[in-house]
Amino acid sequence: MMPFFLNDDAIAVGAYQELVRTNQTHIKLVGQGNELTSELLKMATIDHQLTMIGKEAFRLLFLNKITKTTLQSVYIERGEI
């Protein structure tokens, strides 16, 4: 089954509520943001490492040259939702 990726965890929770209401719980949802809502509902999410992005942005701010950097997002599998 192909999962549905949603813009963030809060939107995924709203979609899940509608799936439950319409008895369509066989559909897999994946949120983004690794927020508390996805943790509490044991919903899969993508953690974009926003804290690391902020730290890296702050570090790059003080360099005297333009630098390209890449940070990996992390897929977090949880439960069946």
Summarize the structure in words:
The structure is a single chain. By secondary structure, the protein is of the alpha/beta class. Helix content is 37%, strand content 16%. Strands 1-2-3-4 form a four-stranded mixed β-sheet, with helices on one face. The longest helix has 13 residues, at 9-21. The model has no long low-confidence stretch (mean pLDDT 91).
- Order of strands, widest sheet: 1-2-3-4
Helix-strand makeup class:
alpha/beta
Radius of gyration in whole Å, from Cα? 16 Å
Q: Determine the mean pLDDT.
A: 91
Largest sheet: 4 strands, mixed
Helicity range: 25-40%
Determine the N-to-C terminus distance: 12 Å
Number of strands: 4
List the helices and strands and how they pair.
Blueprint: E1 4-5, H1 9-21, E2 29-32, H2 36-40, E3 44-47, H3 50-61, E4 74-76
Parallel strand pairs: 1-2, 2-3
Antiparallel strand pairs: 3-4
